[in-house]
Design a protein that fits this description.
This protein is an alpha/beta fold. The chain folds into two domains: 48-156 and 221-226, abc type-2 transporter like fold (3-Layer(aba) Sandwich), CATH 3.40.1710.10; 233-429, no CATH class. 67% of the residues lie in helices and 7% in strands. It is built from 15 helices and five strands. The protein has helices at 2-18, 20-40, 59-70, 82-90, 124-156, 180-212, 216-219, 233-264, 266-271, 277-305, 315-339, 343-360, 372-378, 382-395, 404-429; strands at residues 48-54, 74-79, 96-100, 116-120, 222-226.
Length: 430
């Protein structure tokens, strides 16, 4: 029995050796994925661009700004007004804005002295990390200032009772001739008055010191989350999920559909038919394009109707962007079909193409949390450019045209993939 099993094992290895593409994928792909994804799977953003609005221009505000600039994880990219800060967050020029009101105090005692932080809620994990980092810097400053305040209190006020008053009359004083009991009563009255005055002064000192202590309610910074005030993860995920659905369905359907024709032998029948190559390509692609468009509209309707994702932006430009993205996805699927001999190979290549886009595009893990070299890989993926447009249209009320670079890159990928895939497909027909 073992001899027969051994012979079968040898046969399988011989087949794998002949199919070098599959063998290489089995050996190298897990290593590549482990290295790339191991660096990419990270929710913690470690660098933030800070916009500063300093209305106080005080020693306290300068101290906070200095600590922010000294922090390796933050850099001040601009300064200006509150409206300019909001615009910087809207258009992705800053990750967090710090607003110092005119009466700002690092150990705030009122709302007017409280620090304000603005973050972009459409970038969920970046917003959470930015608030945490700024709060840590502010907390360190407040601890140091509170320690100094306590030391001042201990030095200026060490008891809660007025000190004992000693009053003695000189021998040559006219009051010394008075009867002892009268003199004693007079001394006691004077002592009481002195003690009352001293106690009143100490109470005033006490109140003055108490006024210097902060109000815990205003010690923490006030955080204003823009565009997704409740930081709902569904608002973050649904706009990205639309792109993921598009690229998965389109790539898989196109790749498998064309390869299926090869396996069945019907592609040869189409080749000898009167159809020109352009007509054949369009005839194969358009059905999948129509199905993917319907799927996209259904997902969009569910996102708005079921999950209450606002989509307050320009839907016309958004749909146009989705069509461009759809053409790029069709090109990927068609290209995979031209280099695959069977459906199994097509599925393997499709997964090799799509899984990195799921991990590295920013769909789940923020690009800002990835190392630089991993981020460069993401720039070659169409989904990387779809996601920011989709989220900004949904949550910020923007237009797809507000992202000219992303739109241009999607158009470039659409033309490139379709052109390369069409050339290879036409060669396979001849």
């Amino acid at each position: 029995m073992w001899k027969r099993i051994g012979a079968l094992i040898v046969k399988e290895f011989i087949q794998l050796k002949r199919d070098r593409r599959t063998l290489a994928m089995m050996i190298m792909l897990p290593v590549i994925w482990l290295v790339a994804f191991g660096y990419a799977v990270n929710f913690d953003v470690n660098h933030f661009r800070v916009f500063v609005v300093d209305q106080a221009k005080s020693e306290d505000s300068r101290q906070v700004i200095h600590e922010v600039e000294a922090n390796e994880e933050m850099s001040v990219v601009d300064r200006g007004t509150e409206q300019e800060a909001r615009d910087a967050l809207k258009y992705g020029k800053a990750d967090v804005a710090i607003l110092f009101p005119k009466e700002y105090d690092s150990i705030a005692k009122s709302k007017e002295q409280q620090l304000n932080i603005l973050v972009d809620g459409s970038r969920l994990f970046t917003a959470q990390s930015a608030v945490r980092e700024v709060s840590e810097v502010l907390g360190d400053i407040q601890k140091a200032n509170m320690k100094e305040l306590r030391q001042n209190v201990e030095e200026r006020f060490k008891g809660d009772e007025a000190p004992e008053v000693k009053l003695e009359l000189p021998p040559d004083s006219p009051l010394a001739e008075l009867p002892p009991n009268v003199t004693k009563d007079l001394q006691n009255q004077i002592k009481s008055q002195i003690r009352a005055v001293m106690k009143e002064q100490m109470e005033e000192q006490k109140k003055e010191l108490e006024d210097q202590f902060p109000d815990p309610e205003y010690m923490a910074a006030k955080v204003e989350v823009l565009y997704n005030k409740d930081l709902k993860s569904v608002y973050y995920m649904i706009p990205g999920l639309m792109g993921l659905v598009l690229i998965f369905i389109t790539t898989f359907m196109t790749a498998l559909g064309v390869v299926r024709e090869k396996e069945r032998g019907t592609l040869e029948q189409l080749i000898v038919s009167p159809l020109r190559s352009v007509e054949l390509i369009l005839g194969k692609l358009l059905p999948y394009m129509i199905i993917a468009t319907v799927d996209f509209l259904l997902v969009l309707a569910v996102g708005i109707g079921v999950f209450d994702v606002p989509f307050t932006g320009d839907l016309v430009s958004y749909l146009l962007m989705a069509l461009i993205f759809l053409f790029a996805s069709l090109g990927i699927g068609l290209f995979i079909s031209t280099v695959s001999q069977n459906q199994q190979q097509a599925m393997q290549l499709a997964m090799m193409t799509l899984l990195p886009q799921f991990i590295l595009s920013g769909f789940v893990f923020p690009l800002e949390a990835m190392p630089e070299w991993i981020r460069w890989l993401s720039y070659f993926m169409p989904l990387t450019y779809f996601l920011p447009i989709s989220r900004d249209v949904a949550l910020k009320g923007m237009s797809a045209w507000d992202h000219p670079v992303a739109m241009a890159m999607l158009a470039f990928f659409a033309v490139l993939f379709l052109l390369v895939a069409t050339v290879r497909f036409r060669r396979s027909l001849t």
